[in-house]
Amino acid sequence: MGVELQISKPTRERLIRLVRLLDQLEKAGKTTVSSAEIQQRTGWTSFTVRRDVSSLGIHCSSPAGYKTTVLKDEIRRKLDLGIEEKLCCIVGLGKLGAALAAYGGFANSTFKIVAGFDTSVNRTETLIAPFPLYTTTRMESVIKNLGIEYAILTVPEASAQEMALRLAACGLRGIVNYTTAILRVPETTAVENLSVIDALQKLSTR
Amino acid sequence: MGVELQISKPTRERLIRLVRLLDQLEKAGKTTVSSAEIQQRTGWTSFTVRRDVSSLGIHCSSPAGYKTTVLKDEIRRKLDLGIEEKLCCIVGLGKLGAALAAYGGFANSTFKIVAGFDTSVNRTETLIAPFPLYTTTRMESVIKNLGIEYAILTVPEASAQEMALRLAACGLRGIVNYTTAILRVPETTAVENLSVIDALQKLSTR
DNA sequence: AGTTGTGAAGACTTTCACAGCT
DNA sequence: AGCTGTGAAAGTCTTCACAACT
Q1: Does the global pTM surpass 0.85?
Q2: Which residues share a beta bridge with B7?
Q3: Helix or strand or coil: residue B83?
Q4: What is the rounded CA–CA span in Å between residue A42 and residue A20?
């Protein structure tokens, strides 16, 4: 506690992915992995990998490289991944929202979807999901009562900004924005933009 | 055209989003917008906005700021957005793939989905989409015949790497990766990662 | 012998401050 | 008067080179 680790954003994002890679390698039976091999598998230089790891104050080297399991667990611990369960909701239960509601990948993570919201009563009553669905009128109270910290926003673009402000007002820590809308919310709530069109445009302007 | 515009990645990503913001402002009837107002709406500083715009060699200032339409069209032109139609395919027609197949947002973009692929004949025959569906055995030939340049990857994590390599071998320019897999493909093919879990973890480690 | 860990250099990005334009 | 455009400074991130470790 108390040691002020200042990890830069690029480093944090690489480490998050590195954990996943280490997980894959571990399952494939590799007990050690060198920074050179991580370079080969990710495209990040071995310098960068070593700097990233070392910036966490982790030391688990051997002449064969890092010990897969140790490194993975250490990064998880330092970044607070994989321990505490974090509650999420899906806002907007159209096709995309419904697809995410059925997504099995959350099971392997610490994120748990505990509520879904839609303006249409028809949707909330028809859709079958492994968590309760509510109309958006009840959004604020459900979020506060359950202690939800993250939202996945899959509403139509036209209502995205309004919903984002309502969510931020509930004190959410973050919003995953699947819409193309440019969201502006108070700084206490972070936004990650996952619009397909954005992603394709990034690829095409490369 | 010869003028070697070297635009940095952060600048490019902001400009892509700026185009969308300008589009929204234009529709809201704003004819001009200052860098200070863009700062207010995006969180990027006005310095950065001006530097980004100026790095394209664009000049469309007035004492009231940039002219919304002119700026939008100029960025579009310089970044090669919004002119030529770019062909895409969806690989993996589970719930997420199907949701993207039905997504209307592509209509406003220059990206056009012209094919879908799945290993299961059952899926390709059952699912209704506004473009033809094929089994993955035909993937290489369809991509080459139609001239598809981008793929949206929504297969199960276990087959993601293999599919990515097959897609890269077709000479695709880019892959939008919705899986949590860490993909490694030749440098000629770019990858944008849009995993929900990744996004949530970025938010939670902030 | 082969690896990590890290000070120092280098490259890149953002911020500042203000000249110059309309 | 109020904005943009940009050289220069500051700040951040990556790469290099090599000492230290196993």
Answers
A1: yes
A2: none
A3: coil
A4: 11
